[in-house]
Amino acid sequence: MSLQEKVWIITGCSTGFGRHIAKHAINAGYKVAVTARNLEAIRDITEGHEENTLTLPLDVTNKDQINSVVSKTIEKFGHIDVLVNNAGIGYFASVEESIEEETRKMFEINFWGLMHMTNAVLPYMRNRKSGHIINFSSIGGLVSFPTLGYYHATKYALEGISESLAQEVASFNIHVTLIEPGSFRTDWGGRSSVKTETLISDYSESSVGQMLNFLQQGGGQEAGDPAKAAEAVIMVAQADKPPLRLLLGEGAYLGATTKFTNLLASIEEWKETTLNADFKN
């Protein structure tokens, strides 16, 4: 299939990664369905490219809108080749202080909304025996920090289900890739996240308070360049053998390699106890 024939759907395009990926995909010559909850925030992305783009409203917690986006994309372009599940939010609070209503809302967006979107496009990809699902996870899907416990839970869930999905759809020539960014200048810690004010004073001087201060002071100074992240996503989508996981940024690389080095060391340290848990023949 030529570059110009490939069709993308990208969620959460109003800001951050989604906005940059949409622009890069359009400039690369793809046909792109650009989506966001607020249409006015994305109209400029498709301006002048109306023949090869769609601008569609999408709240990933709304199944009717999901179905509408998929059907309108098929109606205009005939098929779907790449789905970028980018829409998501953050949540800052200690586990004990977290508000269930807010954390459930985050799960509805970060996990269930993403999976509903995925399940909506899979029949079309299976029918064509071709496709690529690119799920935005996080270094927080591999490594945990204080203050982000429930956010991590959404991303760890995404990591697990994406691994299973990749194995299930491989025979249909459908690829699955998890994108795992570190800290990027996307306003993730500001507009698109919720912060619960500290209710338990013990946490204010603990690692929780320290992390909240770090996030607040570091906003806008993150090392990651979202435009370069978008270029990496385009590269992954064009690869014949795309990776299951792609870390983005030095912080993500160091965080992941440190965790898994320490994890392997711990596994080996307790190897005898682990192996002794089996029945002995």
TrEMBL record:
The keyword Oxidoreductase applies. Keywords: Oxidoreductase. The keyword Oxidoreductase applies. InterPro entries: NAD(P)-bd_dom_sf, SDR_fam, SDR_oxidoreductase. GO terms for molecular function: oxidoreductase activity. Belongs to the short-chain dehydrogenases/reductases (SDR) family. PANTHER family: SHORT CHAIN DEHYDROGENASE, SHORT-CHAIN DEHYDROGENASE_REDUCTASE FAMILY PROTEIN. This is Oxidoreductase. It comes from Paenibacillus sonchi. The lineage of its organism: Bacteria, Bacillati, Bacillota, Bacilli, Bacillales.
